[in-house]
């Protein structure tokens, strides 16, 4: 058998799940398993205990309330992708999700699982960041909301404590009349991004949100570019300056997919494309 | 870097915990006591003898082990048998009729020469079948079909004939 030895527990309540996590420092949460099980099969992870959260009441479903799209922990990628309510609330999500692996993976993998896995090149952490989203963590010390900005620390590292379970993710609803775009470059469809950009252009508020993944040790907001566009508008000079400024966000070293220089060039191009597309979709 | 943080946490014992699993496979209720780390792909092949589900990469890249879990295509190598307890699983063995007559999708694969060595075929069939049976309409454009097949690797055909087979099967099922 490929995976290493572990103890398997499938609690029925969140309270039990938290106690099981807190009771073993080597414990890990198992949701859809589409990142964790490959890591186990390759023995890159060796948890002493897996806490399967699939049977816990109240961890399923999607709701749109108070300007937030709330995605519970056991909600599969594909459920969010096909949710009409979520699409009406923020079409950026469905557009990005088509790029998350392949449908059979999205059928099992969970959105919150992907956020907790926090691969620096993964699409959903970037979308959470671009929409000023957050996650809710529950643990022995109670419940807290963590803003996306504070959640993603480093490649595969978040501010979730080992005894906490992320019970839901909250994506913001697209502001009225705002435009959106997702642009990604990969060698093959479904791969992790070599670089990707999510853009929200809100002309009424004079605000542009830009986030990128695949270019740094975590998903990043392109704040300098956002400021340039907020101050100077969406004309070609401002767009050029904003895409040039985005290059500074690239810190990923040369790897087998791309050099740093190439990623800088790529990110600038993707920022320009994403902002143009988002602007053309504003009402 | 503090080496303590990357040291593997090996358990002190070599106990391999087991758990009871009960699920439906191809319409039949099955139950067994298996190691909790047994993958669904190994459960199907080694415990049930359903060797039609192939195992390629065992980390979710190749799609050879694709089965249908509760109506949707999924990687059996990325699911533990214990996770599938209570689920309804369908494998390639359930696709042809009892008398051996092929499903229109299998017919289409044969007609279009959509396989050569056949290793990827069970996974391809289960993935495509879940799409043919789904309420979500299929995109039968060249790009749409290739997108649907993008999670299943084939090293023989170059995919052209598989795309043709998908189209033939969709037409055949639509005209029934």
Topology (elements, then pairings):
The complex is a heterodimer of chains A (283) and B (176).
Chain A: E1 7-9, H1 14-22, E2 27-30, H2 36-41, E3 49-52, E4 62-65, E5 68-72, H3 77-82, H4 84-89, H5 91-97, H6 103-108, H7 111-117, H8 123-130, E6 134-139, E7 142-147, H9 148-151, E8 152-154, E9 157-158, E10 165-172, E11 179-185, E12 195-202, E13 207-213, E14 220-221, H10 223-232, H11 236-246, H12 260-280
Parallel strand pairs in A: 1-3, 2-3
Antiparallel strand pairs in A: 4-5, 5-10, 6-7, 6-10, 8-9, 11-12, 12-13, 13-14
Chain B: E1 18-25, E2 28-35, H1 40-47, E3 66-69, E4 72-75, E5 88-90, H2 104-111, H3 121-133, H4 142-149, H5 160-174
Helix pairs in contact in B: 2-5
In words, what does this structure look like?
- The complex is a heterodimer of chains A (283) and B (176).
- Chain A is α+β, with helices and mostly antiparallel strands and 283 residues long.
- In chain A, 36% of the residues lie in helices and 24% in strands.
- In chain A, the strands form four sheets. Chain A has a five-stranded antiparallel sheet. In chain A, strands 11-12-13-14 form a four-stranded antiparallel sheet.
- In chain A, helix 10 packs antiparallel against helix 11 and helix 11 runs antiparallel to helix 12.
- The longest helix of chain A has 21 residues, at 260-280.
- The termini of chain A are far apart.
- With 176 residues, chain B is an alpha+beta fold.
- In chain B, 30% of the residues lie in helices and 15% in strands.
- Chain B contains five helices and five strands.
- Chain B has helices at 40-47, 104-111, 121-133, 142-149, 160-174; strands at 18-25, 28-35, 66-69, 72-75, 88-90.
- In chain B, strands 2-1-5-3-4 form a five-stranded mixed sheet, with helices on both faces.
- In chain B, a hairpin with a 2-residue loop joins strand 1 (18-25) and strand 2 (28-35).
- Chain B is globular and about 55 Å long.
- Chain B starts with 17 loop residues before the first strand and ends with a helix.
- The relative contact order of chain B is 0.14.
- The mean pLDDT of chain B is 93.
- The interface between A and B is large, with 37 and 38 residues.
């Amino acid at each position: 058998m490929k995976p290493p030895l572990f103890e398997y527990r499938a609690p029925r309540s969140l309270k039990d799940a938290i106690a099981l996590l807190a009771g073993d420092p080597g414990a890990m949460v198992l949701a859809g398993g589409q990142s964790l099980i490959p890591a186990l099969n390759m023995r890159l992870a060796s948890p002493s205990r897996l806490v399967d959260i699939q049977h816990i009441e109240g961890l399923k479903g999607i709701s749109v309330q108070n300007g937030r799209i709330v995605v519970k922990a056991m909600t599969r990628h594909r459920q969010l992708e096909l949710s009409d309510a979520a699409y009406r609330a923020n079409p950026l999500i469905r557009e990005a999700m088509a790029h998350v692996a392949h449908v059979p993976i999205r059928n099992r993998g969970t959105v919150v699982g992907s956020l907790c896995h926090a691969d620096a090149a993964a699409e959903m952490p970037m979308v959470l960041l671009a929409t000023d989203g957050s996650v809710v963590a529950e643990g022995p010390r109670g419940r807290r909301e963590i803003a996306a900005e504070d959640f993603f620390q480093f490649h595969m590292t978040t501010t979730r404590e080992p005894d906490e379970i992320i019970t839901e993710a909250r994506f913001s609803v697209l502001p009225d009349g705002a435009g959106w775009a997702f642009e990604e470059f990969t060698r093959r469809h479904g791969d992790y991004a070599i670089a990707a950009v999510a853009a929200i252009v809100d002309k009424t508020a004079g605000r542009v949100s830009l986030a990128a993944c695949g270019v740094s040790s975590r998903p990043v907001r392109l704040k300098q570019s956002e400021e340039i566009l907020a101050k100077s508008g969406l004309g070609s000079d401002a767009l050029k300056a904003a895409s040039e400024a985005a290059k500074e966000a690239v810190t990923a070293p040369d790897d087998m997919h791309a050099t740093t220089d190439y990623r800088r060039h790529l990110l600038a191009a993707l920022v320009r494309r994403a902002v143009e597309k988002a602007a053309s979709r504003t009402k | 870097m503090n080496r303590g943080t990357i040291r593997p946490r090996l358990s002190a014992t070599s106990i391999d915990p087991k758990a009871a699993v009960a699920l439906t496979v191809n319409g039949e209720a099955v139950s067994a006591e298996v190691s909790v780390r047994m993958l669904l792909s190994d459960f199907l092949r080694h415990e049930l003898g359903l060797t039609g589900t192939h195992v390629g990469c065992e980390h979710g890249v190749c799609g050879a082990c694709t089965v249908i879990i509760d109506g949707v295509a999924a990687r059996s190598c990325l699911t533990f048998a214990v996770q599938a307890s209570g689920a309804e699983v369908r494998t390639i063995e359930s696709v042809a009729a009892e008398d051996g007559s092929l499903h229109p999708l299998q017919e289409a694969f044969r007609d279009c020469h959509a396989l050569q060595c056949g290793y990827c075929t069970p996974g391809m069939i289960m993935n495509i079948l879940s799409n043919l049976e789904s309420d979500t309409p299929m995109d039968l454009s060249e790009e749409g079909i290739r997108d649907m097949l993008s999670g299943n690797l084939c090293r023989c055909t170059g995919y052209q004939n598989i795309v043709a087979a998908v189209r033939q099967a969709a037409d055949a099922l639509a005209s029934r």
